[in-house]
Design goal:
By secondary structure, the protein is mostly beta strands. Helix content is 9%, strand content 29%. The longest helix has 14 residues. It is elongated and about 85 Å long. The relative contact order is 0.11.
């Protein structure tokens, strides 16, 4: 007489499985007994809407690899030594299983289910904190009000003065800098690192600050006006994530945003200074597409031709707002 293995499936998981599936097919015309499907060592009927119906049989040897039948031979020996939940190594679970409000840990023991902590629980009122909720999840604690900035401890502080020392984590290539706009240095702000034909953005990323000069006046034989255009569109590349990103961020105004040179309007240095002062306000999250000039900052935040165009994006997570720039001799 061969061995017969008793397969025990926690009734809570069965209840959740059947109740969730039943909701999916409400008000649909489903054919009963459409096919058989095996899960957690039990063979069920399913209707044509993939809802689970009654149990056909408990599989002594677990489910077959195709999940359509029971396994025909018991070549696997279940092992639940020292375990009260989780896999038995033979396509089923160890008895008795966990109760409601419990999770099965990696050792096969039941423990109280993890209750994620909130931003308030960990004393954060701003910022993005990977794996900080106590259960392995990330916490996004929003931005501070305009005129405030999120400090390294996740607290909103009055906007501080400009910084004079910059970080060293950028690689000298084209990329997207995701961080928090700390300060906007206008050409007439002589207390800060500045020059006379750029606005310099100071962006905080992972506790360090980076210098990003943006042309607001052309030099040489070109029309001194810088041409600009703004639009709302999805953030190009992966979602905002504090850091320096160099893969999949080769932005092109025409091919990726559908913008042509005719959309741009020329503006003087004074007009663009006012735009930065009023619209690109320090304290919030920002993404800057740019070419790093060294490990402390980047430039070329304008049309650079073919898949390496610079741009500023404010509100990159909630409602991405692009600011695009070009020179008078660039046509596309």
């Amino acid at each position: 007489m061969g061995n017969v293995w008793l397969v025990v499936v926690p009734m809570l998981s069965l209840y959740l499985l059947t109740s969730v599936c039943a909701c999916a097919s409400q008000n649909q015309d489903c054919t009963s007994h459409y096919r058989k499907y095996c899960v957690e060592g039990r063979l069920y009927w399913q209707n044509s809407c993939a809802d689970y119906e009654e149990i056909i049989s408990v599989c002594a040897c677990g489910c077959a690899d195709d999940f359509l039948t029971c396994r025909s031979d018991c070549t696997c020996t279940p092992d639940c030594t020292g375990k009260e939940c989780g896999s038995d190594g033979c396509f089923s679970n160890c008895p008795p299983g966990c109760d409601a409000g419990e999770d099965c840990n990696a050792e096969g023991l039941c423990e109280p289910a993890c209750v994620p902590e909130s931003c308030a629980d960990i004393n954060k009122e701003c910022g993005y904190w990977p794996k900080a909720d106590g259960c392995g999840g990330d916490l996004d604690c929003d931005d501070c009000q305009y005129g405030e900035i999120c400090d390294v401890n996740g607290r909103c502080q009055p906007l501080s003065e400009c910084v004079h020392g910059f970080g060293g984590s950028l690689t000298q290539t084209f990329g997207r800098l995701d961080g928090f706009l700390h300060y906007v240095v206008l050409p007439d702000d002589y207390q800060c690192p500045n020059d006379d034909n750029h606005v310099r953005l100071q962006v905080r990323m992972n506790g360090q600050y980076y210098d990003v000069p943006v042309n607001i006046e052309a030099t040489g034989n070109l029309d001194p006006k810088i041409y600009h255009y703004d639009l709302y569109a999805d953030l190009y590349g992966e979602q905002w994530n504090e850091g320096w990103h160099t893969t999949g961020v080769d932005l092109d105004y025409y091919y990726d945003l559908g913008v042509t040179s005719s959309s741009f309007s020329g503006a003087t240095l004074e007009e663009l200074s006012a735009m930065f002062e009023n619209e690109i306000v320090a304290g919030g999250r920002i993404s800057v597409f740019m070419e790093a000039f060294d490990n402390s900052g980047g430039h070329n935040v304008h049309r650079n031709n073919y898949f390496s165009d610079g741009a500023i994006v404010i509100n990159p997570q909630t409602n991405p707002h692009y600011y695009l720039f070009r020179f008078s001799d660039q046509s596309f």
